[in-house]
Design brief:
The structure is a homodimer. The first copy, chain A, is of the alpha/beta class. Chain A has three domains: about 70 residues, lambda repressor-like DNA-binding domains (434 Repressor (Amino-terminal Domain)); about 120 residues, Rossmann fold; about 160 residues, Rossmann fold (3-Layer(aba) Sandwich). The radius of gyration of chain A is 27 Å and the shape is elongated. Chains A and B meet through helix 4, helix 5, strand 2, helix 6 and helix 7 of A and helix 4, helix 5, strand 2, helix 6 and helix 7 of B. Chain A binds a DNA duplex through helix 2 and helix 4.
Chain lengths: ~425, ~425
DNA sequence: GTGAAAGCGCTAACAA
DNA sequence: TTGTTAGCGCTTTCAC
């Protein structure tokens, strides 16, 4: 077993709930290593070797010990007990010690609801994502959660599965349950969402975008620019007939911006992104397959298909293999996001690297900064990066016989899949 | 815009917070479609077209309207207002209507902390996963969250990143913050975790396992059996020299069971799983690469490598390609989990299909059943399924020249990637 | 079916 | 530094 049950130390750091490894940004108090290893009074005396004076303390009607029980056992006032646990520097070491001892003996665990009600702080933040079922978002959530934990915040997550009407319900539900701040994806949200959040003055961070929102702050990158840059790379390979597979563009400015980034780059070359070559599908592997099926059924086919996410691209790639279409010889495919698997497909997927983890990390920092009204530093510019891999090849018409296989202008590179 | 601001209906269902699409399991009350579309009073009168009598209602010190404000405006008692929102069947339709009107006018949003404190229910559950950075877990969390939402519960997630000592901190922190139930992965947890949860009588569901825990219930499948079955399939291909790539087995009974399932199946054939061919690595693509590097550097190589997760397998597969090792001709590779991408690798990955989404769904149902003390039906037996795909081929020694490429005894099949 | 009132367990102001 | 006390906003008896 990892913990010494005898160890006497605090779960508590300054005005901050249990658990968090307060990073260097945190106020003074117990260090990470000192803190957090509070054992719990076992169910029966027989089960514990703790110094048993668990005694006949009168406890609250719920059965669980309350701070009042702790104070009584420690023979200090309620206030002192509260202070000891919230900010140990507010009480004498001796008081602290007695309180901690009582906490340990009783197996006391704070009541977050009471804390929240009295202090109007929940130390949790909400994050509503389009879906958790997307590696890029999962990565970001992962980083978000880890960073928040470091600051002492819990993460409440939910998703609306791209059903726009659900977002408000979801956000409302989360706000109702109580969070100190909120993270959403994109700038485009029902006005009710903004109204609700603004009315409550809830700190808000919008991710995955740089657009100016009617309320809140953003942490992200330019979807349009990323798509533009990637498209330039595609155009450089001589492609003129380009199709796009994207998610629904309605209510999703990210999808729209990616498409417009592409059409802008094409326009600069005097090319037009044909509307019938913009195919909307659910952002899944299956969606990619279906879209590619439609493309392959077309009379005139594009020579390059740019997918709005790697997941779509993987589906598209797979469909090509099924139909015996050689990628990139007969058709080039690009993705977007650069998920870990993008570099492992066959052929490896050309894509745009999106700083998913950074978005999570910096949105957490930004949000905590807003909540605690302290400066955690401006989030740096988050950059995308075009990653050329073998799924993007020269357009068939320009193909020289001798460079039929695997000849690339840029070398295939691997990013962030370590 | 999707919502009619004028719409007058409830956000509230019986004793259950806003939002959830109460499924058929829910008690009576507003239907999903009736519910939840409560607009919020906009910041300034100019911003809203609401029937403005927003008036000079004295509001609580926080600035936000409270139930008391609602009651006053509706001209009913606090109690009635509370009842109207918690269980509309407890008040007269007329009362309800007036309350709802007041709610709408004020843009009232319930205070979850106060609710939780008074009712001792938070309508949220905690889930602590090893990591969110694993498609199998992400799938499961996704299903979990969706199902919980249907029941009116919020999901608080956190991960311990396979650092066993962190789990207790994480669990404690979540419990402190307040949840009505808890979901963990596996049966093996520090006794402090069990002590804490047991002491608070917190409903507990352990997933991804069938082992009997000291406290709580399980929803899962047999890791040992799944590994056993897959190994039988490998053995049937004539492999005798089998290596295993797994995560750390310490504190992880799932990893141990998978390994022992393999060694048992081998033992039945009089084969031994060599300890030096059991390679522990972090459960990532990178871990799979590193492990395969080690294997390829060995004097005598195994003919089949069984990976404990698809992610590891994908890394291993990739490493083989990098080193020019043909899969499955020179080496067979299997995974575990059957993530969406398993069927899309080249060659497609033989693996065991794990009912990840079902685990999420049923653990949610089980937990809610425990919390609300109602019978939501016993979770059905969750079954794994061996999925033979091309990465598993005959052992090189038994290889007939004419079946060198792609000859399989079972046809490659695709599961659950639609 | 409704109103009045007593907490839920804690924090934070204020005195001492 | 410590103790006292008044709520935080809601649910839930308990009478009526």
């Amino acid at each position: 077993m990892v913990f010494s049950r005898m160890r006497l130390n605090s779960c508590f750091t300054v005005a901050r709930p249990t658990g968090p490894a307060c990073t260097s940004d945190g106020p003074t108090g117990f260090s990470y290593h000192e803190a957090l290893h509070l054992p719990v009074a076992a169910t029966g005396p027989a089960l514990t070797t703790s110094p048993s004076k668990i005694s006949s303390m009168p406890q609250s009607p719920t059965g669980r010990p309350t701070l009042e029980d702790v104070a009584r056992l420690a023979d200090v006032s309620l206030g002192s007990a509260s202070r000891a646990l919230s900010d140990s520097s507010l009480v004498k070491p001796k008081t602290l010690k007695r309180v901690m001892q009582a906490v340990e003996q009783l197996g006391y665990v704070r009541n977050g609801a009471a804390r929240a009600l009295a202090s109007r702080r929940t130390f949790s933040v909400g994050a509503v994502y389009p879906t958790l079922h997307n590696p890029a978002f999962a990565d970001s959530i992962h980083a978000l959660q880890q960073t928040l934990w470091g600051f002492g915040y819990q993460l409440v997550v939910a998703s609306h599965e791209y059903v726009e009407e659900r977002e408000y319900e979801v956000v409302r539900s989360i706000v109702e349950r109580g969070v100190d701040g909120l993270i959403l994806v994109g700038v485009e949200h029902d006005h009710q969402v903004f109204d609700l959040v603004r009315q409550r003055k809830l700190p808000l961070v919008l991710t995955w975008t740089l657009e100016q929102p009617p309320y809140g702050h953003t942490v992200g990158f330019s979807n349009r620019q990323a798509a533009y840059d990637l498209t330039r790379a595609v155009l450089a390979k001589g492609h003129k007939d380009i199709a796009v597979i994207c998610g629904s563009r309605e209510h999703n400015e990210r999808a729209r911006q990616r498409v417009s980034g592409t059409s802008e780059a094409m326009a600069e070359r005097g090319l037009t992104l044909r509307e019938e070559w913009i195919i909307e599908q659910p952002l899944s592997v299956e969606g990619g397959k279906l879209a590619m099926q439609r493309i392959l059924a077309m009379g005139q086919r594009p020579t390059a298909v740019m997918c709005n996410t790697d997941t779509l691209a993987i589906g598209a790639l797979h469909e090509c293999r099924v139909h015996g279409i050689a990628v990139p010889d007969q058709m080039s495919i690009t993705g977007y996001d650069d998920i870990v698997l993008a570099s492992l497909t066959v052929p490896p997927l050309a894509t745009v690297h999106i700083p998913t983890a950074q978005i999570g990390t910096f949105s957490a920092r930004r949000l905590v900064g807003l909540i605690e009204n302290r400066d955690l530093g401006e989030p740096p510019a988050l950059n995308h990066e075009v990653v050329i891999r073998e799924s993007l090849g020269p357009a068939p018409s320009t193909l020289q016989p001798e460079m039929k296989r695997g000849k690339l202008s840029g070398s295939a590179r691997t990013v962030a899949d370590s």
